Amino acid sequence: MTDPSRSTDMERPRRSLPDDALDAQTAALAAPIAPAEGDPLPLVVFRVAGERFALPAGSVERIFMPAPVRRVPHRNHPAFRGLVGHEGEIVLAASIEKLLDLERGSDPAGPGRRFILLGPAGRGWAFEVDMVEGMVTVSRSALRPAPLTVAQGKGTASRMLAVVDGGEVSLLDPEALRAGWEVTAA
Amino acid sequence: MSGFGGLDLFELFRGEVEVHGQALNAGLLALEAHPDDATPVTAIMRAAHSIKGAGRVVGLESVVSLAHAMEDALVRIQKGVERCTSGRVQQLLQGTDVLTSLQSVREPDVPAWNADHAAAINELITALSAPAPASAAAPAAPPVSTPAPEPATTLPVHQPESTPAAEPLSPAPSTPAQVRHAEPVSTEVRTVRVNADNLDRMMRLAGESMVEGRRFPQVQRGLRQIRAQLRALRASVDASGDPSAMNREVAALDRAVTGLAGMLESAFRRTEEVGERLYHEVIGSRMRPFGDATAGFPRLVRDVSRMLGRQVRFEMEGLQTPVDRDILARLDAPLNHILRNAIDHGVESPSDRRAAGKGETAMLRLEARHHAGMLEVRVRDDGRGIDPERIRAKVIERRLQSADVAEGLARAELLEFLFLPGFSTAGSVTEVSGRGVGLDVVHQTMRELGGSVRVESEPGRGTTFVLSLPITLSVIRAALMQVSGERLAFPLARIDRIERIASADLRRTEGRLAFDLDGESIGVLHGSSLLELPGDPPAGTHASILVIGGEAGRTGILVDGFLGERDLVVRPLDARLGRVPHVAASALDEDGVPLLVMDVEDMLVSIRRGLAEGRIRGMAATAFTRGGPVRRRILIAEDSITVREVERQMLLRAGYHVEVAVDGVDAWNQLCAGAFDMLVTDLDMPRMNGIELVRALRRDPRFERLPVAIVSYKDRPEDREAGLHAGANAYLTKGSFQDRTFLDTIIDLVGEPVP
Lengths: 186, 755
Description:
A: CATH 2.40.50.180, globular, B: alpha/beta, Four Helix Bundle (Hemerythrin (Met), subunit A), Heat Shock Protein 90, six-stranded mixed beta sheet
């Protein structure tokens, strides 16, 4: 924990990572980190509907185990799922598949399912993913703009692509995601 | 002073001084910034009034007199008798400083405080009753050596041996007022009083739950060992192929796993139990006995009776009745007002009582009990009662109603006027009551708490004030229903019945579902369609039906099933959801899964309107269609039943179709659900007031152009301006009922009743 760039960025999501994700993260922490070229950007990488996505680690408050989502009467927009309880708090839940217009559905019973809770506190919201791969740090300078068709697609919050473990990952903009569902909840 | 049942009155007093001192400072500063806007005056008066009342409870006469003088000055400003000058505000701020300096005084030091401040308080009282000084600089408190003229109210404060001139009473007059703004006006840390036993139990449980939690890592270590053993086992079997070695290893593993399973099970069970007990303690800690709020009343009654020369026997009952602390905290001021009123206006002098054939000693009773799921508090006296004719005369004199309408008002309706702001039948203003600050504050407080107040009175026999309040604002007992697979909580107090009937008994006649209950045919709606929760309709040999609506017409809601009862800690719904129809709040179930708490009243409103318009599936619309010409539809939003009825009758007589709403939220829901051509709304209403309602309407594209007329008692230009600024098309005072102004305005805005 002597390297400040590691500790501060990793602390928050790690706090409540469940066991298996913890293993992955431990491995990630133990691995020698490439000296930060340019501007290091820590990411949380996850899978949903067969695709890989990432969010800036700073935007992720918690990762928690699946829990029942309760629908809200008269609020039937597909992007808004309802309410989910986490550690005594009631959190609004959205559907990442609908927000990203992902054609293939997810497996609702998959063993790696997790909720990702985005902040800020008091305006938090969560969505469920098929699995959380873990955290990686990439260099901002290595990010590439997403193809125009992706970046401008309706309901798409992918602005950039990052390369993680040799594969492409769409980096999502948490604010664009929030804007995608918040109006549908009211 | 700290006598009553261990309750430290002085501590409470200091708390009051702190809270109301903040209100005084904030209000006075606002007044200073905009001397022509008298809006803050009411709040300042209430704050001064509250400090006065609290001062009386702890016997601080100097505080009572000072606060009284401040209140007097404020009344003159409010009535426009006196202009609000910066000099006057400065005096009031000095008074506030004196009062708030008590915050840091301990009870034993009160005599010293009195001695230190007596001279300054006298001077302030004198200055406050003199004509207002023009500017702040001029009236810097007169030098201490000048003997102050005897103020109207004398102070039972002895002069100190040596006049301490060291402690300045207030910031130097040169300190600009803005500096005060820089201080944090509300550094609000919410503190609550918790029963010590209750807190002890919670702490023990929290400790236990922590200890239980520590067992889990032990289990985790055990599991890791087992994994290591398993790997070793596989390695050794791979290497040797010796079954006996394997058997030994397996037996050891078996023992380890069994031990862990047992440990886990007991840990789970204990954790669950501890958690449950802790939960109930926390819920219980919100409740306090009613007696906590009444400790100061015997003293109050005694002092007021003596001052007024009355003989009163004061009795209290139901002091152990549990009440939510938030409600209890708000009950003191209203009860204080009502008790004072009772002694001042209700109870006759001993000679009058004798002449009326009653005993010289009057009876005054304060009772609390739980009744029909509500807390009911009654204050009853056997005094002279309230003469309805006096109210009627006052109503006419103050032009609150035309003489015609006023003549037709029943006694109960007349008594409602007592709760109007500024309405007082007291002939003179005394220190005890008669400023008209009292009963409207009571009314306001009850409304804010979701309760109500009414008064019953029989001339010559006595008066009873009945306050009806929710027992708690935060915990409700609810029935859990499953609808389309979702769990919904219905407050028990709002449910009529829960019926389970054979599916065959659910008839379908003319496309309408119904069943018989107590010889009455009750219409049934699908919960899933009413709430727009798509799902499979309940099937099976039996149907679960939730019956709501009571006397006003019962309706059945078909649900999947009944899941039991729960005590739920209610939390506000996430603001991002906006206003969700039929939903009042959210809560967490015992398993941590969110629940929605339903607003049964709101459901009933939708059902009735949905029936009338044939919009709700599952019910036939044919029986409800209206005949005759289509009339323009007007919604009246008004919380006073008297005014509402007057407006309704006038518009009905003119030929409009009229619906009524009892407050802003009700109005909003009705407007959203039904096609209305116009809204007539009051300003002061519970839940959502008129201004908020109009603003909300104007923000919504559906209602941008809806004609809106505000009808209010308030006839100050600033009220009118606020109403029109919010987006109303017209602003009328209730005086407009007396001529054609009201009707003409309506016709101008919406057109003739039949297009």
